[in-house]
Specification:
Elements lengths: L4 H9 L9 H25 L7 H21 L20 H28 L9 H8 L1 E2 L2 E2 H19 L6 H9 L7 H34 L2 H4 L3 H25 L16 H8 L15 H8 L3 H16 L1
Antiparallel strand pairs: 1-2
Helix pairs in contact: 2-3, 2-8, 3-8, 3-10, 4-6, 4-7, 7-8, 8-10
């Protein structure tokens, strides 16, 4: 296919949009993950125990990558100073009493969103079977006798209160959702739909990523080195597992750290139903990829997701794309 000189000229003028995350963030996150995995393999070889290949240590590799990436982002890239975060550091912080009504509305929107997510996690049966069961274990894990999900609600209070005192415009998508729920304003469907789509992307794929981290991590950490190098096939399989550990670990970190202060928040999610269908059919509970060739009816029957719910899902997708 031939193009005109004018088209070539226009293409030459086009530049790729700047990434919200620098290459340094990716490299330092990879380094943190590799250090954790190397340390786990060394401790496993020295102490001859399998604990270091367990599920919770697998999350440690995610934490090692995430902490490294956050420190680089803040102290080297200084992403928190970018105007795209929506945080204005050049003006004095507002008084808490001035922003309290807005903060309470945003908390109402955020907490309602989390309650809806929790309802899906706890009622959809595929989240309680197989590798997905680990997601529920993580949410119910206790730190200082308080479950993780309760810590999320508690820590969101100071975060929202602080961010609103520094925000250039706290009337964001979360506020729009909360204001509609509380009857403060007429619904701003554009903002509300952006809010719901962004959270749908995050929670759907974050659960998949968390569930997928432990399996490959155990293979990489626990496989004896003599067995790995004994045959080229063994080495190839181990390297494939290692590749997925890196992939799932960094992807999990990315979904966990979609925060405005890190300038890593989700800007937008596609409003088109076709895009959602193309993405979701590849993952549980649908899983139309692979040689089994299972249909949606077969997959959802096994997980307790009814055909009626599928039809509702399609109608919701069409409604969101139409707004």
């Amino acid at each position: 296919m031939q193009t005109s000189p004018e088209t070539h000229a226009n293409l030459n003028k086009m530049t790729r949009p700047a990434s919200a995350v620098s290459s340094g963030v990716g490299w330092i996150g990879l380094a943190g993950l590799l250090v954790w995995v190397a340390g786990a393999r060394w401790l496993n070889a020295q102490l001859h125990v399998t604990d270091f290949g367990g599920k919770w240590y697998a999350l440690g590799s995610v934490a090692a990558a995430g902490v490294s990436m956050m420190l680089w982002s803040v102290f080297v890239d200084k992403v928190h100073r970018r105007p795209t975060t929506g945080i204005n550091w050049d003006i004095p912080a507002r008084k808490l009493r001035e922003t309290l009504p807005v903060s309470l509305t945003r908390l109402a929107g955020l907490w309602t969103t989390w309650l809806l997510i929790g309802a899906v996690y706890w009622t959809a049966r595929w989240y309680h079977t197989g590798s997905y069961a680990f997601v529920i274990d993580v949410m119910e894990a206790r730190f200082l006798y308080i479950p993780v999900y309760a810590w999320m609600f508690l820590l969101s209070i100071p975060y929202i209160f602080w961010s609103d005192t520094r925000s250039a415009d706290p009337h964001d998508e979360t506020w729009a959702f909360g204001a509609w729920l509380m009857g403060e304003t007429a619904p701003d469907w554009e903002k509300i739909n952006r809010h719901l789509r962004a959270w749908a992307v995050k929670v759907f794929f974050l659960a998949f990523m968390i569930a997928g981290v432990p399996g490959g991590y155990a293979n990489v950490v626990l496989e004896p080195w003599d067995d790995i190098v004994a045959h080229s096939t063994h080495l190839a399989l181990w390297l494939v597992s290692f590749m997925f550990v890196i992939d799932m670990g960094l992807a999990t970190t990315g979904y966990l750290l979609t925060l405005k202060p890190l300038d890593a928040h989700i800007r937008s999610a596609t409003p088109y139903a076709a895009g959602w269908v193309a993405a979701l059919i590849c993952y549980p509970p649908f899983v139309l990829m692979g040689g089994a060739g299972r249909s949606i009816i077969m997959s959802t029957r096994a997980t307790g997701f009814s055909g009626c719910a599928i039809r509702r899902f399609r109608r919701i997708g069409r409604a969101l794309s139409a707004r």
